[in-house]
Amino acid sequence: MNDKKTLFDKVWDSHVVHHIENGPDVLFIDRHMVHEVTSPVAFLGIKNRDIEVMYPEKTFATADHNTPTINQHLPVEDPLSANQLRMLEENSNEFGISYWGLGHEKNGIVHVVGPEYGITQPGATIVCGDSHTSTHGAFGAIAFGIGTSEVEMVLATQCIMQTKPKSMRINVEGKLNFGVTSKDVALYIISQLSTSGATGYFVEYAGQVFRDMTMEGRMTVCNLSIEMGARGGMIAPDEKTFAYVKGREFTPSGKAWDAVMDYWETLSTDNDAQFDKEITFDAANIEPMITYGTNPGMGIGISNGIPVADAKDSGAATYHKSLKYMNFNEGDSMMGKPIDFVFLGSCTNGRIEDFRLFTSLVKGRKKADNVTAWLVPGSHKVEKAIKEEGLLRILEEAGFELREPGCSACLAMNDDKVPAGKYAVSTSNRNFEGRQGPGSRTLLASPLVAAAAAVTGKVTDPRELMELETA
Amino acid sequence: MAYDKFNILTTSAVPLPIENVDTDQIIPARFLKATERKGFGDNLFRDWRYNNDHSEKKDFVLNNPIYSGRILVGGKNFGSGSSREHAAWAVYDYGFRCVVSSFFADIFRNNCLNIGVLPVQVSPEYLEEIFRAIEANPNALLEVNLPEQTITIKATGSQESFDINPYKKANMTNGFDDIDYLLNIKEQIREFAGNRPL
Fold this sequence. Notes:
The complex is a heterodimer.
Chain A: H1 7-13, E1 16-19, E2 25-28, E3 31-34, H2 40-49, E4 59-62, H3 79-95, E5 98-100, H4 110-116, E6 125-128, E7 142-145, H5 148-157, E8 159-162, E9 166-173, H6 182-193, E10 201-206, H7 208-212, H8 215-223, E11 232-234, H9 239-245, H10 255-264, E12 277-282, E13 289-291, E14 299-301, H11 316-326, E15 341-344, H12 346-349, H13 352-362, E16 372-375, H14 380-388, H15 391-397, E17 423-426, E18 441-444, H16 447-456, H17 462-470
Helix pairs in contact in A: 2-5, 6-8, 13-16
Chain B: E1 8-11, E2 13-16, H1 23-26, H2 46-49, E3 71-74, H3 86-94, E4 98-101, H4 106-115, E5 118-121, H5 124-136, E6 142-145, E7 150-153, E8 158-161, H6 166-174, H7 178-184, H8 186-194
Parallel strand pairs in B: 2-3, 3-4, 4-5
Antiparallel strand pairs in B: 1-6, 6-7, 7-8
């Protein structure tokens, strides 16, 4: 028998408290993050059982999903949102959990602040009642979203019950083309695998493209793992990872750092370890991507036309329903399609590098008059960097405003809703029907594609604008 | 929280032959603001079920009085998207105890099992057979037998078996939940935690 282990095996196996015969593993959770929407019923369960939170120091709370992105210093107007936020604060205080509420300097989107403060670490198990928890896999952690029943389990016992998923390795080899970002890599992979292509698997991303990527780029890729159905995705930690993590508030220091480094340096897949499935892509085939339908798998290179449904495909009815919702036709070119909104932000693309990319393209240009743009930093730390690096001045000169941090229009739980029938180019993660507001139509893309749309008012290949600059 | 025991369920079913039904359709994010687990059934499939003025969309299956029952039958890749357990709660609260599809998204399946909704995965061919049986007779009965792990179209006797993890099966047939189990091994967990580096 092959005793070689994958990165995933190493981290998973070291967290199994107990294996239930013919059942799931009892998996120990190192870090648990909670937000206002998926936690109240879990805390209620703890109270109803009259038990304590077992390890409050391993859980961190931040408010992000339903928070407003303007006037955060004022009381939240929507009574239901205000109530959820109050519950999170009360529950955190009652059970001794760190709470970074609205206005707190560390507040931001849960998957942005986790890495920023060193809560996210290699080799850890990290869960949150949010499917984009897969983001933290960028550090070589096993991170995935859980339901509220499981949030309650973690609060009560620091464990959840999970069957070990199958393993898949996705290699992307070569060098990325001009104008192609980590977001395009992820949208490309999902378009090739479909939204259920990795269901039942935990993915390891490998190959030169991911080795070359920054930590923030890796977070964007791992973030979108769930959009192809995977439980999560991870990348082996390397010097970039250790350099990113070092010195952050919740990162071990001194002797403890040396001890964790001994462990972290073992975190890679052994040569000859077997995956249940392995796929390799060539970076040369990836161009800036955009979606045209109502799931993230419906993406194409921006210069391509909308595919024609194969008449024999049993899913043709669903496909046509989707295009009808978008008011697009098979064979249409995406380029030149008019758009109404641009959203830069979310746990997928709300980090400083995303704002740098967006700003680099709008610099010296003007926002198109027909476009409403929402630029929402992922956290106060990102917001601060935008100001300190001088990006805000450039954005304002181009006619853009910066909002305050939160999930915002990614899921439109707050007032940042795209109206029915309107098109939004969004750097977020889901283009489901009504995701950004009832009747809204979402085109997922990278910060560069979003920037090109923002200044031209239509779907535009960012390379055309970038080439003008480099020419 | 513990739920009702699941044994044999014989009922008519509601057909939803659409693929990739995501959790934003099952329950849109703007209806996730409650702090207690109740009332989510009212907003199940909200935007497919109601117009903006809250009137019913007549062509949506839940508004068609000829269909009813405690089983929801959906197209492949049912429940993709968000981890919101509210989606499973909405399905349960509306009155469904079982969802049948040829493929389920992971987290949704897990959430269902954790709250007492049985996800039954069948072959694509059998799924078509179920849709045809309901089309022929909206009152067609399905029998889901958890102890035997079978699903049967009563009118034709056509049957298929389905998989379920034995541990989860025992939980569902007894109405237990995972927390009961975990609380019973708390000392073992404490010992394990003591040896962790983080």
